[in-house]
Amino acid sequence: MTKPRLRIGLIGTGFMGKAHVFGFTSAPRVFELPYDLDLHTVADITPEAAERARVTLGFAHATSDWRTIMANPEIDLVSITAPNALHKEMSLMAIAAGKHVYCEKPLAPLAQDALEMTLAAEARLQTH
After folding, report:
1. Is the dihedral of CA 11, 33, 98, 59 positive or negative?
2. Between β-strands 100-103 and 77-80, what pairing exists: parallel, antiparallel or unpaired?
3. By residue range, what is the domain housing residue 98?
4. pTM across the whole model
5. Per the structure, how many domains does the chain have?
6. Sign of the CA dihedral 14, 41, 27, 118?
7. Which Gene3D superfamilies does the UniProt record give (predicted)?
8. Percentage helix, strand, coil, to 5, in the chain?
9. Is 76 contained in some domain?
10. CATH of residue 100
């Protein structure tokens, strides 16, 4: 039986980005998941860094503009491991694009920003 694919976009390839990829690649060997996980696109600060991460981490595509992950209808889940100050903008854009968001902690530097992100996600769930 073929499982549906969950296509992942990763923003940020520092320590936590690598930790998320380790989790994505290890989980299917340990757990019976309802999806096959697909490392689709990785975003990093420069085209060179993104391409290095693509090769090293096993992604199919690379970009230096994280917004291309949000705009790509092939990507289902966005894993956000960029600096905390960027989480709000990235998460809100991903939610608006209808993507699942896996955001590293802390969610945002300010509690009000984290609340706004949470309310946006809950509102999206109510409409879909």
Report:
1. positive
2. parallel
3. 1-6+53-128
4. 0.95
5. 1
6. positive
7. NAD(P)-binding Rossmann-like Domain
8. 50, 20, 30
9. yes
10. 3.40.50.720
